[in-house]
Amino acid sequence: MRRALVLVALTLASAVTSVLLAVAVNVATGGELPPGLAPAEPLAWPAVAVAGLVTAVLAYWQQRPLGGAEPEPVAVDPARPTPPAELPALPALFTGRQSEADRILAAIDGGAPLVAVSGPGGVGKSALILHVAHLVHSRYPDGTLFVRLRGASSEPADPAEVLPRLLRSLRPADGDDGELRGDVETLAARLRTRLAGRRYLLVFDDAGGADQVRPLLPGASGSLVLVTSRPVLAELTSATLVGLEEFSDAEARELLARLAGDQRVSADPAATEAVVRACGNLPLAVAIAGSRLRARPSWSMATLAGRLADEERRLDELSSGRDAVRASVAATYTELDAYHQRVFRRLGAHPGTDFDASAAAALADLVGSGAVPALDRLVERQLVQVTTSDRYRLHDLLRLYAIEELGAEYVDALRRLADHYAARARAAIEPWVPWEAAFGPRSESGDPEHRAYVDDERENLIATVTAAAQHRDGHPELREAAWSLAAAAEPAFTRYPYHADARRLWEAGLAIAHSTGVPERIAQAEYAAARASQYSGDVRGGLAHARASLSWWERAGHRLNTAAAHRRLASALYAAGLFTEAEEHYGEALRLCAEHPGGEGVSLRASALRGLGSLHLAFGRIDDAVRTLQKAVDVRREAGDDAGLARARTSLARAHRKAGRIEVARELVTPQIAVFRRLGDVMWEITALRELGRLELAEGRLALATDHLEAARVLALRNHNRTGAVITLVALAEVDAAAGRSDAAAARFREAAEGFHAAEDRVREGTTQLKLALLLARTGAGREADAAAERARAVLTGLDVPDAADLWRRLAEMRGAAGATPSDLGG
């Protein structure tokens, strides 16, 4: 109480003295006192001195403890040091990863003591784990600890180094340094003791493996450990494992926009997609790309996309200070032993999207199943990804790094891969001979395993041939291996049928053939390209390649192959609506076949007869068609060729249908469907089902007709046979028309015409437009009918299409009755 009164008195005295001092200073410096006090003005300066002294003394006594007592120190509990708070700053541009963050938070809410996030370098593991740590750190009042374990570096942190560091953060201020010394087991026990009964958040970034982390873990519940690593830490049985992969397209675009600006991203969506694709959606790469744009306001998104398009410079472009994709991959690559480094390098030569262990063994020249353990090791180190149970892939940027390291080994690795795929293709289909390369296999195989192999590997076969064709040095051994692969793969692509894929295959195959300068190879490649182009719907391309093939075979002087080239050109001319010229080439093919009465000449003669018979049908020469197609059947039967016989009988059935002999046609075509299914000849199964549907239509059984035609269309779509699907659509439209469903029929005709237009199939487009015009005229839609007829006229001008002439006549008669003349219709 006494102390309080003294403090109050000192405070009041100090206040009064301060006021007197202020007045004295004012008067001394020119101010005036009230009239009654004016005589005291000469004393102003002495008053300033006295008041100042008194103020200083009072201030001293206010600060001094009374009675000589010293202030009591604040009590500090030595067992409760200041909680550590070691988390790095929250990532400023953290983007995406919502589902992964939610999964981790759900695990934490459920009491998980340990969450381990794994993934390849640059995928954003550290950013995600720090994001989560900042969300939950307040739940752990005893503190947060953070350690970079440097597991992906050449000098990973040893637990013997990390444990003293953790204990130092946890010990009391006056702790004994002696507890920081000891072996790993002793230090780990001390750490568990320090953590027991407390709630700490421990974050260990970039662990190299479970052995590095295990000594650092708490022994009792209450604390939470978050770990990132490249390998999956499956050995930590208490861990909730979260795998991290590349960004989705949306997440990659969002990060790019946050760095480079929304305006740049929205201004050029195509260039943005190109940048994201070049970065392989890898967060580190996208972040570097965005940072480069941010630092270069004059660059457009297209500028960066152009720079990233060059694969040889892409890793250089994706470097920025300490952040570099190359450095991220190198950190893991350099820790591998020489054997696994070699396997990884050679995997970089694989040009496809994924591969199996046998392809990896071929690339790395490994024996038997030796590739599997090597791949397992690379998967553990996040250098290779597993796509399915037995297939693998390299991220694009990792592939570019591997190719950089591969150097001169590239040609040998790619050659071995081409040899491997060629051998597998031959084994899956049938032995290769040069004649079959150009003109198709002599027999068929419906083995599901063979089909599965082609389904799995066809993109890789194309990519391997393409990579060899694009190799700048044109290495002779690589070129030979790629040519053999194209030749071995072509029958499979034709058989199953992957005509669009075969077209891509032979774009590269043609480049290889021309690079050799060998006429026979160029002729074979042009022939295969002609067939693939025609069957995939590229009528114009098929015709150009067919003409080139004939020219090269004539130059090579090979008579039988020249005959085959005439037949192929005739087929292409037929598809292009040049029927008269087509008939000439069928005739020339048959003349040359007569010079080869046995062997391959027999098969080729039957094919030419079947083509010529179909041409007779197009000209309306039904009897000639039946006689010619019957000859084709006889030749195939005598040769014992089941596949060719089934095809010839299907074509003959069509001729009998045109002649009105429906039952004869039915008996011919029905058994062939089972034959085609047994042989795996999908294209001709589609043709036979369509013919059976047309037979039911001719008999008025519309429901059955629809069933067969829908089955044909579904089969065509399932097997990527666009042309077959559109041809079948026309037949379905005719069924709708017969059933009185005029609107549905018109819609199908229009869809089919658009499909033929896209394929540049002028004959079928024009005749379909004419069928639409007839339908519309029949329903009284005269103006629409005239418009369809005008579109047909524009397409068919210059073509000699007998079927179209009949349609023009029928349309003219119908519209003439309605007041229009044939000339009005353009026919």
From TrEMBL:
Keyword Signal among UniProt keywords: yes
Source organism per UniProt: Cryptosporangium arvum DSM 44712
Repeat (TPR) residue spans along the chain: 606-639
Keyword line: Signal, TPR repeat
Pfam families reported in the protein's UniProt record: NB-ARC, TPR_12
GO molecular function: ADP binding
The protein, known as: NB-ARC domain protein
Gene3D superfamilies membership: Helical domain of apoptotic protease-activating factors (1.10.8.430), P-loop containing nucleotide triphosphate hydrolases (3.40.50.300), Tetratricopeptide repeat domain (1.25.40.10)
Signal peptide from the UniProt entry: 1-22
NB-ARC domain sequence ranges: 110-232
